[in-house]
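Design request, tokens follow.
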């Protein structure tokens, strides 16, 4: 009899809970109207449908099937502009990420910060160092490091991918810490390792707690993911702290070179920060200044191998400006005469957006309506970068590397025509510095070197990996255009290699 009473009571509770849930769901659906949803599985939804890598082609297929707006994904530039740019005030926050932001980053990584006062404070600091007003600070370093890049391509052509990473990292390290990076610098390798650890864990579905926030309420000793997250945090903080400690030691000894770091450490802003917050300001600058530039340079090289027709047109322009017989390297002063190179760079940011194939999630902070849909606060949106970049509604022959699409009088408007730096108020604050990094590097590499396919190892541009574990994302043969171009690199770039500070 007692067992029957227990079963009856338990059944009654379950029925009441299900009834409450059903009532709330009906009320919720009456209040809100959502776009077409991708069919999932009970409880887990779409969590296990998202591939661990190569998410772009998967998300592009969803866009083709479900239209301009699907649950989470915005699949056209029109709706990205309408929501993430014109309504940026309510579409610019971030959803919680207990693992990647909470544990691995101690709530201090700006890319995942909610849209709040802390984000604005750190964003202001980033803007001071990375904005267009700071270009005069960066240009001498970009000139020096791109010459070193050419030297590395000449002397170590099989390590072109490592050379790209050293180049991008050394520019930002010079500005922020007053020191250069070498091709064999283990600190650079470790920085990219920590960055890729973050990117790996930020992939949808990798950490259940980031998808199912209720798990974050478990007692800490039951959170099986926490030890791994703490280990990644310790490794990341060690990489950041090593550079800050080295800079502070130079300041103590009076041997520092004035840079952003020396000035920042004396500001009132840094005195208000915790040690972790300070480390992540420096770390974010190192990561943001390194990754986008190295990946985009690689993408353009892949485009040169697979669509060599445009390379000939780029070379024709370079040869008119710099000479057919390798008279001199291109410079920033040549930029007004090198419109095609600017178009090449924009196409590089558009062509295969594999840094963020499905964009980055933003969270709506209050209820909103759009074209008949009613979205509740807390809805997560992302621009479907791959689907937009490869949509025939957006671009003619979208899969082709075709710089001519950007020869429209807006070659110098680096943000127009693609979403390579993100939309709205979450646009990458260092977009101009990153664009200039790529511009001077590509102008000089195209002028001095040929890029060809390795026999038997064709490049599949649709599957170039985002995470490479310190190896080249594809195979390519790098050779000087001619002996005169090789001599030009030896003559004009050797001094850059020997420069120390």
């Amino acid at each position: 009899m007692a067992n029957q009473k227990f079963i009856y009571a338990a059944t009654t509770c379950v029925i009441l809970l299900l009834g409450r849930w059903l009532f709330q769901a009906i009320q919720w659906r009456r209040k809100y109207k959502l776009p077409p949803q991708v069919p999932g599985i009970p409880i887990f939804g779409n969590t296990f449908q998202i591939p661990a890598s190569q998410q772009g082609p998967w998300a592009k297929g969803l866009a083709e099937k479900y239209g301009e707006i699907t649950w989470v994904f915005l699949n056209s530039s029109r709706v990205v502009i309408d929501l993430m740019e014109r309504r940026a005030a309510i579409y610019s926050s971030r959803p919680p990420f207990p693992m990647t932001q909470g544990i691995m980053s101690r709530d201090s990584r700006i890319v995942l910060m909610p849209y709040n006062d802390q984000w604005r404070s750190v964003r202001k600091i980033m803007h001071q160092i990375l904005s267009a007003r700071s270009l005069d600070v960066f240009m001498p370093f970009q000139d020096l490091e791109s010459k070193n890049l050419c030297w590395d391509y000449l002397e170590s052509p099989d390590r072109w991918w490592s050379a790209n990473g050293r180049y991008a990292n050394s520019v930002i390290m010079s500005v922020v810490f007053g020191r250069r990076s070498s091709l064999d610098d283990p600190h650079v390798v470790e920085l990219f390792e920590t960055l890729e650890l973050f990117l790996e864990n930020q992939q949808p579905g990798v950490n259940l707690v980031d998808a199912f926030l209720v798990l974050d309420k478990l007692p800490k000793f039951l959170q099986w993911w926490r030890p791994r997250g703490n280990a990644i945090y310790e490794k990341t903080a060690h990489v950041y702290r090593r550079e800050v400690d080295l800079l502070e030691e130079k300041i103590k000894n009076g041997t520092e070179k004035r840079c952003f770091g020396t000035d920042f450490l004396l500001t009132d802003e840094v005195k208000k920060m915790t040690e972790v917050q300070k480390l992540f300001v420096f770390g974010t600058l190192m990561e943001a200044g390194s990754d986008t530039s190295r990946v985009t340079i690689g993408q353009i090289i892949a485009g040169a191998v697979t669509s060599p027709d445009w390379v000939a047109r780029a070379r024709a322009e370079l040869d008119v400006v710099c000479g057919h017989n390798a008279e001199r390297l291109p410079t920033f002063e040549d930029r007004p005469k090198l419109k095609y190179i600017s178009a090449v760079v924009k196409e590089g940011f558009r062509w295969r957006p594999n840094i963020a194939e499905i964009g980055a999630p933003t969270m709506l902070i209050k209820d909103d309506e759009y074209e008949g849909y009613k979205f509740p606060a807390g809805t997560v949106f992302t621009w479907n970068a791959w689907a937009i970049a490869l949509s025939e509604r957006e671009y003619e022959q979208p899969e082709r590397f075709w710089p001519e699409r950007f020869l429209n009088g807006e070659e110098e408007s680096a943000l127009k025509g693609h979403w390579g730096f993100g939309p709205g108020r979450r646009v990458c604050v260092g977009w101009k510095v990153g664009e200039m990094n790529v511009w001077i590097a590509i102008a000089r590499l195209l002028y001095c070197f040929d890029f060809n396919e390795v026999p038997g190892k064709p490049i599949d541009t649709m599957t170039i990996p985002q995470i490479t574990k310190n190896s080249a994302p594809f195979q390519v043969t790098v050779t000087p255009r001619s002996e005169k171009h090789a001599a030009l690199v030896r003559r004009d770039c050797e001094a850059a290699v020997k420069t120390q500070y």
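Comment from the thread starter after seeing the answer: thanks! The chain has one domain: 33-498.
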